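Is phosphoenolpyruvate placement plausible here? Inputs below.
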Amino acid sequence: MATVKKSAKKAAKKAPAAKGTKYVYTWGNGKADGNGSMKALLGGKGANLAEMTRIGLPVPPGFTITTEVCTYFYANKKTYPSSLQAQMEAGVKNMEKIMGCKFGDAKGLPLLVAVRSGARDSMPGMMDTILNLGLNDETVKSLAAVTKNERFAWDCYRRFVQMYGDVVLGVQKTEGEDHEPFEVVIEEFKHEKYHKDIIDSDLTADDQKELVKRFKALVKDRTGKGFPSDPWEQLRGAAGAVFSSWMNDRAIVYRRKYNIPAEWGTAVNVQAMVYGNTGDTSGSGVAFTRNPANGVNEFYGEFLVNAQGEDVVAGVRTPDPVALMKKAMPKPFAELMKVRQILEKHFKDVQDVEFTVQEGKLFMLQTRNGKRTAAAALKFSMDMVKEGLIDWKTAVLRNPADQLDQLLAPIFDVTEAKNAKELAKGLPAGPGAASGKIYLNADRAAAAAERGERVLLVRNETSPEDLRGMIAAEGILTAKGGVSSHAALVARQMGKVCICGASAIDIDYDKKTVKVAGETFKEGDYLSIDGTSGTVYGGELKTAPSEIITGIVDGDKASKKTEKFKSFLKLMEWCEQATRMAVRTNADTPEQTRIALAFGATGIGLTRTEHMFFEGDRIDAMREMILATSLPARKKALAKLLPYQREDFTGIFKALKGLPATIRLLDPPLHEFLPHSKEQQLDLSKKIGVPVETIIQRVHDLHEFNPMLGHRGCRLGIAYPEITEMQARAIFEAAADVAKKKIAVKPEVMIPLVGFSKEFDLQAEIVHAVAKEVMAEKKVTFEYQVGTMIEVPRGALTADEIAKGAEFFSFGTNDLTQTALGISRDDMGAFLMPYIESEVFSKNPFATLDATGVGQLMETAVTKGRSTRPNIKLGICGEHGGDPDSVKFCHKLGLNYVSCSPYRVPVARLAAAQAAIEEGKGAAPAKKAAKKAAKKAPAKKAAAKKVAKKAAKKAAKKK
Ligand code: PEP
Ligand code: MG
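Reply from A.M.:
I modeled the complex. Tokens:
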């Protein structure tokens, strides 16, 4: 953790706080210092509160303490800039003026405030909210007197002491405790007085007074200090707690998962309280302007009468669907519907709002772009284009590429689900199907997942402490809470299957059991959950692929009729329109090729020929070839391999129907193919008729200390040219046979692991010679290319030399990462997490391209390759070709295509299209600037035109 803190410090040092800096931005009464575009400085919440105020929505007044203060706080031993107090006082004064009451007033109505954190993006794990701040033993009395509502005043005070005690003073459950200490006090009190479980809103004023007393005693007992009564001390304490929460473990875990820089910091929002807990004409709710689980255009959320916002999101009471508010509070509901329209029109996206109704009057407390599932994102984007809210390019950008595979995620096998025992129903909070062993605690769930088990996390409700378990689980099931509870929000964001509020399940944390429908499940037993319908099943259920998969891959007619399928196709069509870079696939069989083409691949970017030998007894012929000790023996084995290869290539060429196929010559890291166990060696000996002693000796001779850097790639073909010869023959004979059937073929023969141009030349010479021979023998001509992989640093650094002979480059970024970083691609498990935790890596470099390091080698190769051969074809076929961030980087490099596994093709297509659209947005101002220049200086019109032309050309080239 120390390193994380250090980086925040470093950032602060870079930007020391200037004198006279504005640290506090106020809003209220239709006016705001800030606006919606200032998220970096004001955080998402603060910026949008300012924006809502500006557009005339009913927002209680308040102020934002900027993220710069957070940076200052960490750079200066947790202290504040000297001018902050005065600026906060001015902020409080502004609120007092608008609200007509005073902060800390023990005689009249006291101004109470809510304090909330607000990072640029909302972040579970950080301090969330403290309500009713400003109450003490005196102000609570004046609040009760002025409102003539004693129960309400003490309810506010009780909540305040509880929240403040928990998040500011740190009175939280310790190891071994399963419940929050304040909740334990409440439960004990309820049973002591009422001998049953009553809901909080049934507690009387006297009950609340008693609870405040007990809470304060708890605080004293746990912290050794009394509860602070000075409102300003409370406010400073709350702000400090927000800033401190930026560096707590949960926030760090979250930032790491979502790649949020520690340097961003958080803002603090202080807002005048409005009260949802004054009685039956008041309430609080959270809602989405459209359904974030399935995308349906319906107001979707939850509402609780006589409650403050925390009650809705904490999942402690299960709220009502917001639609019921229409009946209970028709006027504020109608107003809310108007606000819904205004917000979507203004922000042009689905909003996630928090609101409070105080005695019939509606107040908006927050708006932000709603988190959504991939299915909802797809539907929102399609619908909003139809409604004219956004254009198609924005729609493409609205579908997160790294979420797209959720759409391709499995559902339960229909017949299995029909026959399975339905145990309970809950709220469908995260779509998809998941089956796994249940665990009732996040740590045990995470540990089980680490052991390789598929896990379901089952809790009464989740809190940010459960994040690790949620990340590890396939699915999350809660007994309490609604669709906007912590569990639901976080699950949706992570793309996890989730059911909330399945109230029929009875969890016993001590016994580690779940009782439901008369059955008892222990930890480690299987349950299955359908997060689309909200159904909980007993046992383990098989899953089935999504309609998109069955529609595209199997051509299933019913799937093709679904809205999801049609929308997906439309999205892909738009991607096609926007993209500059092509997407190919890494495929080794005709079936894989067929699937990839169905997903829109435009050719094969990598066929690993050694993978073609994994099937059946082909591996024996391959092993025979590797183990051969003489040329005749090797040729004999190669003769066996040739027909297999020719047959495979024929199938692939036919499946491609004239699209290009990059076929890589043999690159077997030998250790992957040698028979290591005695059993395997004996078996092989029988099959190929070579004495087992010879095999053992040969395996011994071929042993390599570092096989990844050993006798593989083109080194094999240079030592044994007959291997290259056989492969080239198989490729070209297949091409000739297919071409004769009047099917176009475009073979591209690729030489692996080239670091020296001579390596390439030696291998290319053989390939060209065989091509000539085969064309003459078969009396047919066809076009072909010979190129290379760039996958060792020397290859990248001497790309200009290599490009003299190579007609294309394909970046093998698996090996290029391995060799550039000097880190074995197979052996980083032991230090990957510590490296990510200490921020050496921000992401696994074998999954997401290390743009600064490996990317530089690629850039060099691109520049040098093009300097020799301007139209050289450039692609990537390492695993990074299916990773959205890496695809975007490849676009920036100007590659012609990326290649990835068949099921990643849609993800790569979406990322490639987004890269083109984002670049187009960036390029436009260049054109505009040139135009402006032309207008400004008519005398120099000709020259300006030239500039404009140049800029336009540059922009077009970039596209
Ligand atoms: C690579 O190294 O990126 C590559 C595609 O080749 P392989 O993974 O087969 O070594
Ligand atoms: Mg490689």
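Short version: Residues 905-936 form the longest helix (32 residues).
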